[in-house]
Amino acid sequence: MINLPTLIGHRGVKNLAPENTIxxxxxxxxxxxxxxxxxxxxxxxxxxxxxHDDNLDRTTTGIGCAANYMYQDIKKLDAGKFxxxxxxxxxxxxxxxVLCLCSDNNIGINIELKSNLGFEKKNVEAVVNLLNTYKFxxxxxxxxxxxxxxxxxxxxxxxxxAGILIDQFNKNVNLYNIVHTCxxxxxxxxxxxxxxxxxxxxxLCKKNNIIVTVYSSKNISMKKAKKLWKIGVDSxxxxxxxEFMLR
Length: 247
Prior knowledge:
By secondary structure, the protein is of the alpha/beta class. The protein has helices at residues 22-30, 71-74, 81-84, 95-104, 120-134, 147-156, 175-185, 199-207, 222-230; strands at residues 7-10, 35-42, 48-50, 108-113, 140-144, 162-166, 189-193, 211-215, 235-238.
């Protein structure tokens, strides 16, 4: 089992630097975070790199589906202009670069699998091939809203740690279905939208030894974080940890 910290940097520290970039991860490290979360997808030539959205438009100067571009062209894009409102030399980094940076600084990583539709298997295989080659020694785990990607990771890397992400409950995604899935695929954690975390959610997860992480569309304040930890949340994905005085 791996021990997750109470705070994990969300896309590095996405409120303080351009998300999913080396700069954002370096700042997370400088601020004292010991784990970071990143979003990983695959380029046309099967290179795992960091990007959250299906398309390049929001966070880079590129246009359209990321899976249609070779990584050599993706690296030429500006991944900082959207944040600073001026041209930068910041680019979408390869997953390998991030592994090296985190290895050098003893940082744990949550690799969220963010494949484009139709590229789920290719994305998982590319990430697995990289990890098998690089032999990353720091603690890490996988997560995804695409549960099939998580199942495939566990199939290819059966000893790896993985968890599923849940944005909302519906007829197909309920607490008992979640627990059954975790047991069936040996998943150690669940990440929930902060809006759906309740005592019932936490009680059932704890009874089944499932670690609970929480994310939000907005930065979680210290006041809110303390309430979440008090009711049993294990880890919180944080956009800006400045309030927490980690150093």
